[in-house]
Amino acid sequence: MNQPSLPSRRTARVVIADEGGDLFLFRGPGLIDQGRHYFFAVGGGVDADETTIEAALRELREETGQTVEPGRLGGPIARTAGVWTTHDGVDFHSDDTFFFLRTARFAPDLSGMEEEERLEIAEGRWSSLADLRESEYPLFPRGLLPVVEDALDGTFPPRPVELESPSTVGPFDE
Fold this sequence. Notes:
alpha+beta
């Protein structure tokens, strides 16, 4: 018997760092059901007529109010893909591409978010690497933090680091 194909969703995400190396991340239940809140990067779905860079820039503007030129994004620095289940019980395949942005610290303007995004996000905040390591909330996906640490040091991979599929190894470093 043939399995029906799963809906597919490409995403573009932006890990944002300020001049001191603090990261702006969202915390909340997110789109995928992990049974708890976690930290995740700004970003979302890539529209059919967009490149991943265009989607990353649009999501950055919608979710933080920040507008930047494409050349300011570093990367892509990482990529992961896997099958997920939403909080509503819908399975889908996601292919996530991560970019990096170093910028001056800003107060985010969340007014451009869609209603569904507001349900997935409890807060957006700046956190130091030390605070992230000590937090009860893990960073999604597994393996992203070392790639971000390299980017903070100015080291970018020649092609995106392929993170293990969270759907097979678990979503978080614990």
